Amino acid sequence: xxxxxxxxxxxxVYGLGTVLMTLGLVTTLVGWRFGRGDNAPFDARGYGMLxxxxxxxxxxxxxxxxxxxxxxxxxxxxxxxxxxxxxxxTPLIIGFIAYAGGASQREVAGAIIADLLMIxxxxxxxxxxxxxxxxxxxxxxxxxxxxxxxxxxxxxDSAKAxxxxxxxxxxxxxxxxxxxxxxxxxxxxxxxxxxxxxDIVTTAVIITYLDVTAxxxxxxxxxxxAGVVDRLVGAVADDPAAQ
Length: 243
Known about the structure:
Helix content is 75%, strand content 5%. It is mainly alpha-helical. The strands form 2 sheets. Strands 1-2 form a two-stranded antiparallel ribbon. Strand 1 (2-3) and strand 2 form a beta hairpin. Helix 3 (80-100) runs antiparallel to helix 4. The longest helix is centred in the last third of the chain and has 27 residues, at 164-190. The relative contact order is 0.14.
């Protein structure tokens, strides 16, 4: 696969993903230092979840760049680190969104269980053949729909009880993840593991784009809402050494 004359390979794509996720981690730490307020989700717990999810992703992309954890099962190329990354980082994504919306522990648990079922069943579908592949696809998609129910149902209801600003942040994060993750079942269906309409590199490019957009996009929304840029500009303006 080539873009603007550059031949893309999986190591190149994942290396770029490593850089972007690392930038997301640095941005999170800057936001943690200069973000306004002590209330959720702009407190240490909130920023800790953000740093955790993008930090795990950065390490995972580095490992995938090196090709560690890859194997072939029944003729299907399996990237086990990809699913390990998702199993660790996506619950933090859901947890942060729920935290921003003031959801109860029961609601958070339900959403995370649906999320993990979606990932684990999807991974299992890579390891089987024949009709079981599509059984796994249907069950994983059903789990995704369960997650959508929590995001746009109970979690949204809880967020509506918070301030207008807090609900606005929750809605932005919810919509970002809800829309982007809708594409994953389609990508999986056309990938080499299912219909085979895309090759391994093309699939890697699409998934990396979606993954970076979701995770780094979340961080950009939070940092912007927390007024980090304004604080940084103010700090520079007040620094005599910068005059």
